[in-house]
Amino acid sequence: MYSKILFKLIQEAAIPAFGLLVIKILITTYYARMLGYNTDLYNIFSLQVSQTDYTIINSNVIFGFVIFSFFGLAYCLAKSLFFHNSHISPKVSLSIFNLRVGFLIQDSFHLFSQTLIWLLFNFSILFITLLLYFLGLIYGSVLLMSLILCLIGMYFFILDIEFEYRKGLEEGEEEVFVL
Amino acid sequence: MRNHDHSIIRFVIDLIQIAVLLAILLSPVYLIISLNVKELNFKAEITQAIAGAKSQR
After folding, report:
1. Among A2, A20, A57, whose Cβ lies nearest the Cβ of B31?
2. How far is CA A127 from CA A2, A76, A134, in A?
């Protein structure tokens, strides 16, 4: 009745979005209180600050976002590069099951949808960072960090797709893309 | 394209799902721009500019 892949993507996107919301609330509350604003949960999304304070608060919020989304992406990429069920070695597989962390071994459908979502969050953050930087509202170092981490994530994601594609060709599978 | 459901309900559900996904993916943008700058109150500036233009006539 409904699209399974879209449902899966929505499911995977819920956790990062909640994490970003928590980071936003924590960092904005901390810095706004430090800078002398009366902040609570009710006015946190309609807070008005001066331009210098805006730069400080938003740069830190974006820094938190970038770090959080990169760690999420790195976790997914590590799973897909080392513990992908299509190319995991039997030795590594055995040690993973001995350590009782068998949930790390997943198939392409789970891994690619999860990695894609984290990557899209990274790009979404990069887009708004770029916009705010050209308006002169955040530090350049935050933009640079966001850009570099995005490119690193993108590179490893492409590497993993390429690796799996070559592996499939070596095993004589047909070139079938299921969307 | 075999075994695909081409009904209108399926199309509407797909659209809703895409809208939800887009809203979730763009949530960082909302979270970042929800902070306002006092000096850059565009609405007040535009209202003031219009009022000024009217009084000059």
Report:
1. A20
2. 30, 22, 11
Classify residue A67: in a domain, yes or no: yes
- Do residues A91 and A171 touch, judged by C-beta distance below 8 A? no
pTM: 0.82
Buried b (16+ CB within 10 A) or exposed e, A63-82: bbbbebbbebbeebbebbee
Identify whether A179 is part of a domain: no
Range of the domain at A47: 4-169
Q: What is the pLDDT of residues A125-176, one digit of tens each?
A: 999 999 889 888 889 999 999 999 999 999 999 988 888 888 777 777 665 5
Say yes or no for a CB contact (<8 Å) between A3 and B14: yes
Helix (H) or strand (E) holding B37: strand B36-37
CB pair distance less than 8 Å for B32 and A47:
no
Per DSSP, what are the bridge partners of residue A106?
A: A84
User: Hey, is A105 helix, strand or coil?
Assistant: coil
State how many domains chain A has: 1
